[in-house]
Specification:
Length: 876
């Protein structure tokens, strides 16, 4: 160990000697901040410095420098330290004290506030706090310290730009329990966490820190090809999923049945549905052409999205020149819009609000739509390409990477950036419209407007997209201006040439950074495609009336794959983000799908309807008359139980216990006679079956109702998560000082809401397949499906010693949102009884009865207490 230390010390001495002797003038300048700073009067200064490394339970290790300098009044600039922080004299004095000859703006450290200056008769004290995060393997300064990630270790040096020949009064390094080595061995005292030096020169403070191996591996992966591979695996998995769903949908047709309705039922036998729909795919597709077109659209997106994602990752990694990035970006955006072909088909049969036989637009109408879209996109693309071709007229170099720019040059770069961003926004919108249009997710009014006045629609949408692109540019400009001001806070005045260079770099990178950000969220289109395919396969049957439409017990096998994939896309992958494991996105997607399937496999046999058997479904469920009779029996069950409670309290009003028992026995026999000789479980009542069937006959309607409820219940949850995210110093810095920080916050808001809606949609879609006599148990089991990967994420977080509380908060909020959604779903089952109740609370009490309602309230309060507890830990 001693030899190792001597070799490290010898290597360090050689390195420092080379740095300070190869350029004597530079070395002298480092020691001498310049004649204007009068460094000779700082020799009597007193300095104390502390370094705190915060890495325990942190997503990103944080280094905090706390330095106090007392300069004598003899220093000519001492009085200027007491001036206003906006005055040039103050900035000059503070720069001389903290930076010496270093050019302002060369370091990227953060400071929470301006230095605190305290003046006395003999000295002026300056208290300066700075911090930074270890996110790369490059050296970076923080206050008078310099952190150098070197292989498997972090080297910590006290390397101030001034006061290097002054003996510092006290120096302290708090390394948060990490293993360390004092390379120079000049520390006055040492404990398990701290090193302390007294009256030492800065050169005598050199520490080697050994970070946790897994945390270091995580940081390395973040900056390596593994992250690129992880993101690529995410896109590959998403593309494969879309392709498999499209190919299977082509062979199986739609899940809904189209044709003439069955005759009115006469008795149980005649009312039995002709087919059992939960696991059987039908081949009755009345629109083969539209089905083939929709499948082709999905396959095109599966191939294009994967190819474009891989191309962007390669462009980012290879560092392609701005010229080729601009040309490829414009051409790719134009190609994506034209390949999407949002004019191809009219509204599919039975679209929301449309008649079953509504005609598609004529050939002239489609040609008008195609001309409008093509003309707009080609005009925008032509503008961008014209600027590139005529770069000389704008004063731009051929490679579009000017050192400085004039007003025409900035105008040219803005036009190229806006054109590229506009085209990519238009491409994402075109694909979303195509999916929603063909899947029947759009309102009739929107499709009518698109069919009647396509030019006006393109003009309005084009203006909106231009406004969004301009806002993105404005936000990037504002964030970059704040970043410039933060970094150059000690400059007496901004150098116009340097600021022009900085602006030019921003405009040069705008189109590429923003199109990467836009496409990074294009995976939402995969979710829209899955939802559109689900809607298309389960559109309402074209019957003369819905009363005798045949309902299935749940989604078919392919539909379950689509539903589980939606849940994994919008809800499950958040665990990987919270675990700071972007390299595992593809693995996390597969884990979430497998976990929910495991819950379904275990729960189907233990669900209420699963335990009743297929014979019961055939005789008591499946059509609207069946459901009406079931709800009527459940309502009667509630009435009888209510009368029994009144009788027990002495308020019988002529009702006898024997009569009530006979009525309950008749309800039980109604269940038993439909089970085909198999005795149903004793604890399952007709009320449990009604609640397990849900408020609607079609599982799609249950899913939509639950998704809407979860969306509104998720609003407070989104507010809590965003508030916490904005309060974290690292994320607040990312939001305020990065070009896409605020758009990222808006995107998180939308994605959180989509996550709650997707979770509610999944709960409603799988309502009849999830186990539990009470609906809250279904919410618990679905959350458990999300929780299996969360356990793995929590284990990963524990191993790499990062913060698991945001992950736990998200899981607790998900459970609470789904619990409240399940309660409202039960109320919706008996929504017709609301007219006979004084309030929804009275209806809730009627459905759950006193004991059951107490359990539900207690369960919700427990979840609320868990959320509050996690929140307290998060904010303290």
């Amino acid at each position: 160990m001693a030899m190792t230390r001597w070799w490290r010390l010898l290597s360090l001495v050689v390195l420092v000697s080379c740095m300070w002797t190869c350029d004597p003038a530079s070395a002298q300048q480092r020691r001498d901040p310049g004649t204007g700073c009068h460094p000779e009067h700082l020799q009597e200064s007193s300095v104390e410095a502390t370094l705190r490394l915060q890495q325990h339970k942190q997503s990103h290790p944080r280094v905090v420098s706390d330095m106090t300098v007392r300069v004598p009044r003899l220093w000519p600039l001492a009085k200027q330290l007491t001036f206003s922080v906006q005055s040039p004299q103050y900035r000059l004095a503070m720069r001389c004290l903290l930076l010496g000859d270093e050019t302002p703006g060369t370091r990227n450290e953060w400071h929470p506030r301006d230095p605190v200056v305290t003046a006395t008769d003999s000295s002026v004290e300056v208290h300066y706090v700075a911090y930074n995060w270890i996110t790369t393997d490059k050296p970076f300064p923080v206050g008078p310290w310099e952190i150098v990630p070197a292989g498997r270790t972090w080297m910590v040096y006290l390397w101030p730009r001034t006061l290097q020949t002054v003996r510092w009064k006290r120096i302290e390094a708090d390394l948060d329990g990490l293993a360390f080595s004092d390379l120079v061995e000049r520390a006055s005292s040492s404990t398990e966490n701290k090193l302390v030096w007294t009256n030492r020169l800065p050169q005598e403070v050199q520490v080697e820190v050994d970070p946790p191996r897994l945390r270091q591996l995580t940081a390395t992966l973040t900056q390596s090809l593994w992250t690129t591979a992880g993101v690529a695996s995410w896109w590959v998995c998403a593309s494969i999923l879309i392709a498999v769903a499209a190919l299977r949908a082509r062979h199986t047709g739609t899940a809904a049945e189209h044709g003439t309705p069955p005759p009115p039922p006469v008795g149980d036998a005649a009312r039995q549905p002709a087919a059992d729909g939960p696991d059987t795919d039908t081949d009755t597709d009345t629109d083969t052409e539209h089905s083939t077109s929709f499948t082709r659209t999905l396959l095109e997106w599966a191939v294009l999205s994967g190819a474009v994602a891989l191309a962007l990752l390669l462009l980012t990694h290879r560092g392609v020149k701005p010229l080729w990035c601009a040309v490829l970006g414009i051409l790719a955006g134009l190609a994506l819009v034209l390949v999407a072909r949002p004019w191809v088909l009219g509204a599919p049969p039975a679209a929301p609000g449309a008649g079953p036989d509504e005609p598609a637009p004529s050939g002239d109408g489609r040609r008008g739509q195609a001309r409008a879209v093509t003309a707009a996109t080609c005009a925008v693309a032509g503008t961008g390409l014209l600027v590139i071709a005529a770069h000389g007229a704008f004063g731009l170099p051929e490679n579009l990477a000017p050192v400085t720019t004039t007003a025409p040059g900035r105008t040219g770069l803005v036009l190229v950036g806006l054109a590229t961003v506009w085209l990519w926004l238009a491409a994402m919108l075109a694909w979303a419209w195509r999916f929603a249009h063909e899947g029947g997710l759009l309102r009739k009014h929107w499709t009518e407007q698109w069919d009647e006045v396509p030019a006006q629609c393109v003009a309005v949408v084009g203006c909106l997209l231009a406004a969004v692109a301009t806002i993105l540019l404005g936000l990037a400009w504002h964030a970059s201006a704040k970043q410039w001001g933060r970094v150059n806070w000690l400059a007496e005045h901004y150098d116009p040439a340097e600021y022009n260079k900085y602006q030019s770099k921003l405009l040069e990178n705008f189109f590429f950074s923003d199109l990467k950000w836009i496409f990074a969220y294009s995976w939402v289109l995969t979710g829209i495609a899955l939802l559109a395919l689900l809607r298309y396969r389960n559109r309402p049957a074209r019957t003369q009336g819905r009363r005798f439409e045949r309902f299935s017990r749940g989604p078919s096998k392919l539909d379950r794959l689509l539903i589980v994939s939606l849940f994994a896309f919008f809800v499950g992958v958040r665990a990987a983000k919270f675990a700071n494991a972007s390299a595992l996105y593809g693995v996390w997607l597969v884990l979430n799908i497998v976990a929910v399937y495991m819950v379904l496999r275990i729960g189907r046999d233990w669900s209420v309807l699963g335990r009743m058997g297929k014979s019961f479904y055939a005789k008591r469920l499946g059509t609207e008359p069946h459901r009406d009779e079931l709800v009527k029996k459940a309502r009667h069950y509630l009435t009888v139980n209510h009368q029994k409670r009144l009788l027990d309290q002495g308020h019988g009003d002529g009702v006898t216990s024997e009569g009530l028992e006979k009525e309950l026995e008749d309800l039980r026999n109604w269940l038993v006679t439909a089970c085909g000789g198999n005795e149903p479980p004793e604890q399952i009542s007709v009320l449990d079956i009604a609640l397990a069937w849900g408020p609607y006959g079609r599982w799609w309607s249950n899913a939509v109702r639950a998704g809407r409820l979860a969306f509104w219940f998720g609003l407070p949850a989104t507010g809590l998560l965003l508030y916490y995210q904005a309060q974290a110093p690292y994320w607040r810095a990312q939001i305020l000082f990065t070009p896409v920080g605020i758009p990222e916050l808006v995107a998180d808001l939308i994605l959180y809401q989509m996550a709650w809606a997707a979770a509610g949609f999944t709960l409603g879609a799988l309502w009849r397949l999830l186990p539990g006599r009470r609906s809250q148990a279904r919410a618990w089991f679905l959350t458990a499906g999300y929780g299996v990967p969360v356990v793995l994420a929590a284990a990963l977080i524990q191993v790499i010693d990062t913060d698991p509380r945001q992950l736990l908060l998200y899981a607790a909020l998900l459970l609470c949102v789904l619990t409240l959604t399940s309660i409202c779903m039960d109320l919706a089952t008996f929504r017709k009884d609301l007219q006979y109740q004084s309030s929804r609370s009275a209806l809730l009490l009627s459905v759950y009865q006193l004991r059951g309602l107490s359990v539900q309230i207690a369960w919700v309060l427990v979840q609320a207490a868990a959320i509050v507890g996690i929140w307290v830990h998060l904010t303290h």
